[in-house]
Amino acid sequence: MPRPIQATIHTQALAYNLQQARRHAPDARVWAVVKANAYGHGIERAFAGLRGADGFALLDLAEAQCVRLLGWRGPVLLLEGVFEQRDLELCSRLDLWHTVHCEQQIDMLAAHKTNVPQRVFLKMNTGMNRLGFAPNQYRAAWTRLNALPQVDEISHMTHFSDADGTPGVARQMAVFEAHTADLPGERTVSNSAALLRHGGLSGDWVRPGIAVYGSAPDYPAHDAVHWGLQPTMTLQAQIIAVQNLQAGDTVGYGSQFCAEAPMRIGVVACGYADGYPRVCPTGTPVLVDGAPSRTLGRVSMDMLSVDMTDLPQAGQGSTVTLWGRAANGAVLPIDAVAAKANTLAYELMCALAQRVPVVVEE
User: Fold this and answer.
1) What's the distance, CA 213 to chain centroid?
2) Strand, coil or helix: 15
């Protein structure tokens, strides 16, 4: 039989979370952000749950081709724009919208030979200092784009660096509005955190990413339940061995956990080579047959250990939920696991290893 580990993608939860995003910005259109292979879920697997979106936002041309091959005929936006001149040919062929964040991309458009002008999203750097034109350079960039026959409609975009806090968002939004106030075109400013916490800033388009995948963007200030989000990915494995410890016995490499009293532990067929964080310490939450428990000792490449001392019904073959929804309906938020690893749910989702079998729950 195959190794007893499996990830499940919950299609209905994806659709539900997308509707929750709409609820926070009822007058805006919604991009479903599917970059990083739909945050590790797989674009092909997530598509059925997200096809209720108004458009798909992603990073590269391979992802855009995938969405088109799945039958999507609506808007597709390249969030980082094009990387070289010939990319614009595929943008024309696939009818892709794309971000313009630097002078070099305008140069590429000016040299692009096409009979069909393209829809672009001009990006302003309002404080994130990653991509975009400085506010005092923005109008010149817009004027140059607006004069190109290769360009159709120009929309306006920024990205908040501190969407989980009010002062930072207010400052960045004021800068954005001051430099776009009299320019025509649609606006898109809100990612997941801005959408959930500051829905009034939503603009014409919103760009929910992590929230669509069931994670709270401002955890631990708020959790997924607070925002009405459902887990879209479950990672489960089985207990493949049971060990009975005495006081003084240790668990795992480095003997980092030492039993203070007799214990019963289970060895789980999941490790860091499956995408479970190696840095998760003793005490990281798990569900054993749907009941709360914890990890013990250091995570190995292929295995980790869990406490079954107070779970007499559990044993070899029991199902351990590493994150997501157990068979009895109990939920272990991926945010809680990520917090123990001192990271974010984004990283756990994206790190799911290729060797882990994935099924899609309709």
Assistant:
1) 6
2) helix
Closest CA to 5 of 362, 264, 354: 354
The per-residue pLDDT for 166 is 67
Asked whether the beta carbons of 205 and 28 are under 8 A apart, the reply is yes
- Domain ranges in the chain with CATH number 2.40.37.10: 233-361
Question: Can you give the pLDDT at residue 362?
Answer: 84
* Catalytic-residue membership of 253: yes
What span, in angstroms and rounded, lies between the C-alpha atoms of 318 and 219? 30
Q: Which of 16, 35, 272, 276 is catalytic?
A: 35
Instruction: For domain 233-361, give the fold.
Output: Lyase, Ornithine Decarboxylase; Chain A, domain 1 (2.40.37)
Which residues 6+ apart lie within 8 Å of 273 measured at CB?
301, 302, 353, 355
Nearest to residue 89, comparing CAs of 112, 69, 119? 112
CB count within 10 Å of CB 221 equals 11
Query: Which residues fall within 8 angstroms of residue 32, CB to CB, at 6 or more apart?
Result: 18, 50, 53, 55, 56, 57, 208, 212
pLDDT of residue 260: 97
Walk along the chain (362 residues) in steps of 10 and give the mean pLDDT of each run: 95 98 95 98 98 97 98 98 96 97 98 93 96 98 98 97 80 94 96 90 93 96 97 98 98 97 98 98 98 98 98 97 98 98 98 98 90
CA distances from 223 to 104, 219, 229, 351, 360 (A): 41, 5, 9, 21, 25
Active site residue 123: no
Q: Rounded to an integer, what distance in angstroms lies between the CA atom of residue 88 and that of residue 80?
A: 13
Catalytic residue among 123, 138, 219, 253: 253
CATH 3.10.180.10 given to domain 11-213:
no
DSSP 161: S
Amino acid at site 208: P
